[in-house]
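ok so i was messing around last nite and threw this chain in just to see what happens. nothing serious, just curious
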Amino acid sequence: MDMAPAAVSSNPRSVEEIFKDFSGRRAGLVRALTSGNERIGVSFVLRADKENLCLYGLPNGSWEVSPPADEVPPELPEPALGINFARDGMQRRDWLSLVAVHSDSWLISVAFFYGARLNANDRYQFCPVAHAGCYSLFQSVAWCSLRA
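result:
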């Protein structure tokens, strides 16, 4: 897990490339919110000096907690800012669910950001959620909390 600001490491241009980017980012977020959720809390505590922290899923299937991008406008849509603030006033399970809902929204916005560049034919085929054939991050976190 890298603590540097998230960088754009891919620029998908086809439906398949966008889905691969979406799948990698989703896999990283699933790991962060399920098996890695202890480390997320530690990451936020270690970075307590930062006001707004974001959870990023990366195209390579990893994740990171870092401040938002400095440039305005950012190269990509940004995840929810300041998710570290809500953590202290909530039960851990509820906080992880909140982060998961915001992460689902961010994943879709990144995919549609790339999808906007597709031609009409490709846009017709494009829907990352339908292609994913998987649960939302929120559902994954809820399922894991039921097992615990």
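not much to say yet. The helical segments are 15-33, 37-46, 83-87, 92-115, 120-125, 128-132, 137-147.
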